[in-house]
Design a protein that fits this description.
With 243 residues, the chain is an alpha/beta fold. Helices cover 33% and strands 19% of the residues. The structure holds ligand BV8. Ligand BV8 is lined by residues 15-17, 20-21, 26-29, 41, 44, 94-96, 112, 150-157, 179-181, 183-186, 205-207, 222-224.
């Protein structure tokens, strides 16, 4: 906490846990109902899409319907507030739900893309999220298949987003890893870049993530509780988000 008070450069890396209190199941808990028989790592792949684009689109259409009903929670709102209190704050997310932007975060580095829009597999052009009554949807311009504009397992992350995240992590004073199991790479390694750069690294999560960076701290709890409390403790004049 003391490190945060004097930090000039802070990086927050968020995962699916930050959106859990907005009603979005986390990535590895999401598989309920008819999706219970699939592992997300199996569906979120180019191979699954090539083999059965309709099935993959049905999964994303279901997740998109959940995202449409979700609103930012106190964790998203607090991170948006923090950005205004810290000279150099970089928010890096693994999430594809866009809730950080909805909460007012201006600069969000989306490592894994966004479920807010689709992409033409032929042109690579970004297209609005299609109506999902006719799956798999085709590009309105060229007729090729559309795909969700997300990064699947086995696909490279957007080079600019990854470079931005690695640079910010390597240069920061404090690195907060929030609501992520720390399983997915290369996102999980950002904490190591931060530690190697001499940053104070803290994991905020109800379960201790795997493979934590050496010398790091662990704070057990829900993001919607920990982050407002942290903000209130470090910046007492800001008040605490109790919604
Ligand atoms: C790539 C988009 C290379 C799609 C996602 C080492 C180096 C490089 C790659 C690898 C490597 N080892 C393995 C790999 C391959 C792979 C990988 O990491 N596999 C894993 C399974 C081991 N990585 C890749 O394939 C990446 N690509 O490296 O490409 C390359 C280079 C050049 C050319 C070709 C290839 C791509 C990875 C991106 C995959 N796409 N998402 C979609 O969403 O459908 S990842 C997916 O996992 C989501 O983005 C999710 O956010 C992310 C991480 O999961 P978490 O966010 O941590 O979610 P999880 O459910 O696991 O945990 C939630 C946590 O929240 C829990 O701990 C829970 O306790 C906590 N929680 C619950 N409630 C709360 C809470 N916390 C706080 N508050 C609460 N209320």
């Amino acid at each position: 906490m003391a490190a945060l008070r004097t930090a000039e450069r802070v990086v927050a890396l968020t995962g699916a846990g930050v959106s859990a209190e907005s009603g979005l199941p986390t990535f590895r808990e999401a598989q309920t109902g008819l999706w219970a028989r699939y592992r997300p790592e199996e569906l979120a792949t180019p191979e699954a899409f090539d083999m059965d684009p309709r099935l993959v689109w049905e999964w994303y259409a279901w997740r998109h319907s959940l995202v449409e009903r979700a609103v930012p929670n106190a964790a998203h709102r607090t991170l948006a507030k923090m950005a205004a209190l810290i000279p150099n704050f970089t928010l890096v997310t693994q999430n594809i739900d866009g809730l950080h932007q909805q909460a007012g975060s201006l600069r969000v580095v989306e490592l894994h893309g966004s479920i807010r829009h689709a992409r033409c597999i032929r042109e690579g052009a970004i297209r609005p999220w299609p109506p999902t009554n006719d799956l798999p949807p085709s590009c309105p311009e060229c007729g090729a298949l559309l795909r969700p504009d997300v990064v699947w397992f086995g696909e490279p992350l957007p080079s600019s987003a990854l470079a931005q995240a690695v640079h910010a992590a390597s240069q920061c004073d404090v690195f907060l890893s929030i609501g992520t199991s720390g399983v997915v790479e290369p996102a999980a390694s950002l904490a190591y870049h931060a530690a190697q750069g001499g940053a104070t690294v803290a994991y905020l999560n109800p379960e201790r993530p795997k493979n934590t960076a050496p010398g790091s701290f662990y704070v057990c709890g829900l993001a919607g509780d920990i982050l407002p409390a942290l903000l209130g403790a470090v910046w007492p004049d800001q008040g605490v988000d109790t919604e």
